[in-house]
Amino acid sequence: MQSSRYPKQPTLAVGAIVFKAQKVLLVKRGKAPAKGVWAIPGGRVKLGETLKLAAQREVLEETGITIKAGEPVYSFELIEYDENGAVKFHY
User: 15, 44, 52, 85: which could form a disulfide with 69 (CB 3.0–4.6 Å)?
Assistant: First the structure.
């Protein structure tokens, strides 16, 4: 049986790769999927928000660092299924 917490449609999200002195900024994920894993800062895009503004907001929220986001450079999708084959996550 599919949980009502599972998505009904894909979620649009951003991730920001922030460089400084040949280092990359990482955060430890606090939520599923991949909770506890080191990753680039990012999250969901809000309605009416551009990808650049979403990246800037997410970096600020997760790290306290203000950035100026560049143009988007890459896209991918992630679809994760539960043990019954229902879609748990779709980004």
Answer: 52
Q: Which residue has the tokens 């992630």?
A: 78
Q: pLDDT tens across 31-58, in order?
A: 887 899 999 999 999 999 999 999 999 9
Helix runs in the chain, H state only:
51-63
N-terminal to C-terminal alpha carbon distance within the chain: 22
The size of the chain, in residues, is 91
Q: What is the pTM of this model?
A: 0.82
Domain parsing of the chain, residue ranges: 13-90
CA distance 26 to 33: 16
DSSP E strand boundaries for the chain: 13-15, 19-20, 23-24, 27-28, 38-39, 42-44, 79-81, 87-90
